[in-house]
Amino acid sequence: MSNRRRDRKLILELLYEIDVTGKSLKDILEAKQAAGIDIKLSDFAAGIMTGVLKNRQIIDFVIERYSEGWKISRMPVVDRNILRIGVYEMLYEDEIPVAVSINECVELAKVYSTDDARKFVNGVLGKISRELDRIVAEVKAILMKKNLSRKLPTMNM
After folding, report:
1. Residue 40 has pLDDT above 50, yes or no
2. Which of 23, 137, 156, 157 has the fewest CB atoms within 10 Å, measured from its CB?
3. pTM greater than 0.85 (yes/no)
C-alpha cells in the first residue's frame, strides 16, 4: 500500500470518528494517545485532514449539489467522508490529478463500504470532475460575496 493510500485510509478513519462522535480532531488524537495509540499524521495527511475540516461547509455544498437527491446527512458516514476527501482534493490540491483523487476514493469505497457505494462515489466524483471549472467559479463567487476570499479553492486541472 502506498504512503498516500495509507494516509487517506487514516484520514477516512479520523473523519469517520469525528463525524460519529462530534469530537474535535485534537480531542480524538489526545484520547488515542492516552490509550497508547500514537497516531502520527504525515504532512500530506495533516494537510488533507485540516483542509477537509476547515472547508467542510463548501465541500458538503458541492457534494449535495452533485449527488442528485441525497442530503449529506442521509448518506452513510463512510461514503460521505470518502466524498469529502475526494472533493477537497479536487478543489484544493493542485498537485493531485483529479483522476487520481477519484480512483483513490473509489478504492476506499471498495474496501470500506459496499459495491453500490463504489459506484455512487465514482458517479458523484465523476460528475463533479466534469463540472470542476464551473464549480470552482461558483464557489469563488459565493465566498467573495461573503467576503471569505482567503478560503478560495485553487483550480485543479
Report:
1. yes
2. 157
3. yes
